[in-house]
Amino acid sequence: MAESRTDTPSADGTSMSRGRAFACLYLGLGFLGLECLVWLPFAALLHLVLPQRLGHRVGRRVICFGFDLYLRWLTLLGACRFDLSALDRLRDAGPLVIAPNHPCLLDAVMVLSRLPQVACIMKAELMNNPLLGGGARLAGYIRNEPTLAMVIAAVGELDRGSQLLLFPEGTRTVCDPINPCLPSAAIIAGRARVPVQVVLIETDSAYLSKGWPLFRQPAMPITYRVRLGRRFAPIDDHEAMTRQIEDYLADEVRASDLQPTRTPGDGR
C-alpha cells in the first residue's frame, strides 16, 4: 500500500509537516481573535470617553501595533514570510489615497501594521462585526456605504492630514489579473486634491483569497511582499484616472514574479 503524504510543500521547495501547518493555521487565527477580544471592551470604553480626534489617533496606533504583533507571530510560527518595508516610506508622505490590489484577507492587515495614521474604508458588515466594529469605530474608519457619505468622510480625513486606505477593486480579486476598478479612489483624490499611491501586494499563495474557506489549510510557509507603485496626481476626469489606475495595477500584477498557486476549488 502506498505511503500517505505527511508534508505540505511550499513554493520554494521546502516542506512543513501537515501537523505543524495545521497548528500554524489555528494558532494564527486564534491569536488574531484573541487580540480582537482583548481590545474590544477597551475600544468601546475609549470611544465613549475620549475626544473624537484623540480617539482616532489612539485607535489607529493600537491597531497598527496589534496587526504588527500578529504578523510577527505568523513569522515566528513559520507560517508566513513578510517583506513590508516599502510601506515605511509612506509614514511621513502626508495625505494620500493608498490604493492596493486585493488578493486576500490579509491585505489591510499588512498595510495597517506599518502605517499608524490611516483611515480605512471598510465594508459596512465588517463595521457591524462584534469583534471588529468597536476598534474600527474608535479608529474612525469609514463605512463604504452610502457612497456620498463615504466620499464626504474620506475627503474630511484627508483634509485633516490623515492617509486613506481604499481598495480600488472593491472586493478581493476574482478576475485575473485584477477586478475592474471602482471610481471611488479617483473621486476622493480629485475632491481632496491629493495623490493616489498605488501599492502592489504580491504573494505565492491563494490563501484567504475570494472563495477560500477560512479553515482550509494552505501550503506553508507563504510569502507576502509589498512594493510601492506609481503615484497618480489627482485629475478632474475620474473615469480616465480610474482607467489609468486599473491598467497600471493589472500590468504590474501580471508582471510580478510572485504568483499565487491555484488549486481546484480555491474560488478562482
Helix run count = 8
Order of helices and strands: EEHHEEHEHHEHEHEEH
Largest sheet: 7 strands, mixed
- Strand % is 15-25%
Query: Largest beta sheet: what is the strand line-up?
Result: 3-9-8-4-7-5-6
Poorly predicted runs are: 1-13
Structural class: alpha/beta
Basic shape: globular
Termini, distance in Å?
A: 34 Å
- The domain count comes to 1
Question: Percent range for helical residues?
Answer: 40-55%
Mean pLDDT: 92
Rg (CA only)? 19 Å
Mind explaining what this structure looks like?
The protein is 43% helix and 16% strand. With 268 residues, it is of the alpha/beta class. The protein has one domain (16-255). The strands form 2 sheets. The chain has a 7-stranded mixed beta sheet with strand order 3-9-8-4-7-5-6, sandwiched between helices. α1 runs antiparallel to α2, α6 crosses α7 (184-192) and α7 (184-192) crosses α8 (238-255). The longest helix is centred in the first third of the chain and has 32 residues, at 18-49. The protein is globular.
